[in-house]
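Q: My labmate handed me this sequence with no annotations at all. I'd like to see what the chain might look like in three dimensions before we decide whether it's worth expressing. Could you predict it?
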Amino acid sequence: MPNALARRAVPAQPGYKVDPSRGSRIGRVSSEWFRRPADERYLSLSDLHRSVQSRAARSRARTMESREVCVEARREDADRLTLLLPGEPDPVVPTHWSFSQICQLVGAPSGYLRGLPAPIAAINLQYGLTNHRSEMVKTYTTEGGRTELRAVTGPDYGRIHDHELVEAVMRIAGDGTGDTRWKVPGVLSWSTMRHNPLVDITKDTTTLYASDRDVFLFLCDDLNPIEAGRLPNGEPDLYFRGFYCWISEVGSRSLGIASFYLRAVCQNRNIWGAEQFEEITIRHSKYAANRFADEAAPALETFADSSASGFIAGIRAARARIVARTDEDRTDFLRHRGFSKGETAKVIETVLAEEGHPPASVFDFVQGITAVARSEPRQDARLELEMRAKRLMDKVAA
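A: Here is what I predict for the chain of 398 residues:
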């Protein structure tokens, strides 16, 4: 099947002129992009869905007493450890992740046990399982060439399957290749400062990932730019809508959805010029499936279908609200909101350097704060500055 993007007419000068120096930089997608091997990268949502749904169809969860689990290892194979589970005809092989979960359940150091010969590690694990205080555990096994133990959790673990999140995304994004407005994002050209949405989806550019323990997706509506005001040079300040989401049916991470507006995505999948970042997370607790159905999935559809008018109005209101006309006003505005003397000076200097005028509006101050945050090497300090900028914007939009 030809790439859906290839059917769209490419303009003479593809893409949209953007200013990625404004707003926040989000590196979460880039981190995923850097660490994913080729076999964890997918070129469409349908391919990814087939993979994780097939895996779920071959899997089953059961609750049992921990003392019913038998750990087995043979002297002649010091590197192999298997488990005998009630109802399983053959031994099951723990994955790297499920071995860590077993160790955590019984209070054993997984790193230390991995370095021991399998028979000695088996003795330690068997003792822990036999004397496990919680008594009940939930196992999750998947059949293939061999039966794997993919997860061991407490009995109240609320599993949301990987394919359920992918299906929720497919309801709004189709294949994620351009058949709807939501697609794998294009690429920013640093030489022209234009974000080109019409880029072939390859293993190098895709943002659709799945491994044996998790799923991560990032999609963007970068064929429909949103204009929210003007840049200092008079050109339109363009944004796109985007979201990413993640899940792990075996418990290596919670379920989450993050939505935001952005100005560009570069080749290594850093998100530039982000504004209005919002996030929902759901832990795999007893009622996780209900929360996904009642909160996360509807929130995703609402963001996908909603108008950008509220976002545009908020930006315009922030630009129009003048809060400082003198140097004293500027200093007081930031100091009264908890900024130190050094931070205040840095924000004012940054706005003057980047905008060509001292900060006057709420929007000026927000841009200055996020610009300072980008240069902050400490992640906790950077996130704190970005949250303070967001609170300023939220207060204006309220």
